[in-house]
Amino acid sequence: MRVLFIGDVVGGPGRRGLAAAMPSLRERHRPDLTIVNGENSAGGIGITEKTARGLFDAGADVITTGNHVYRHREAYDFLDRAERVIRPANYPHANPGRGHLVVEAGGMRVGVVNLSGAVGLTVARSPFHEVDNILGSIEADCVVVDFHAEVTSEKVAMGWHLDGRVAAVFGTHTHVPTADARVLPKGTAVITDVGMTGSRTSVLGVKPNGALEALITQMPVRFETAEDDVWVMGAAVEVNERGLADSIEQVMVAAPAE
Ligand SMILES: [Fe+2]
Ligand SMILES: [Fe+2]
Predict the structure, then answer these.
(1) Which one of 53, 93, 208, 251 is most buried, by most CB atoms within 10 A?
(2) Nearest ligand, CA 69
(3) Residue 258 pLDDT more than 90?
């Protein structure tokens, strides 16, 4: 069973770039399940029903999110209704949406869990305790995790925490890919951050001028989503019949010109 995981899709340029790149990604990686982080899919911050639809149309089977998930109020009802969109599980239980799901893919029941890091981000419960609880209750043949977190130490630690218990831990949130994809000794594929799907002529997806002005002047600046040189970033994992990983391959490709 092969999983293709795509990092934070930033705005319209990211959505269009993903749609344009998916045919060749499908051909190359032959995914049974495609998971896409959509927390930046609406105008660069947040997600709406419309942008989620765009990601599903592009080929996503499941959409994960992160700290920007509640940016658009009109999406709250959608998050409660959507069967294949999840938000970090360790947010307050009463918040819109749910934190994990189980889907059929490649002949397996695949659990998908979304977690938020606790360092530098706001959570209701420890991601380590939360994932232990979920793994104790979920009925699945294998589990993959989107760990949406800020710092490398917490993300690397989560890989070791889950080694041998889940097929893969994909790091997201920083929008910058790391070069540490590997399979840990007990069979869990990990990567600290898969990066983003968006413009590389940018600072994390926004136009460099605005980001620079904000950093240099320390004044509020309206950020604009960057459009040029869109790349699709993620990782592909091969899951064996034991529900663990045989391999992980980083994905970093330029989106074909539209
Ligand atoms: Fe993001
Ligand atoms: Fe984030």
Answers:
(1) 251
(2) 2
(3) no
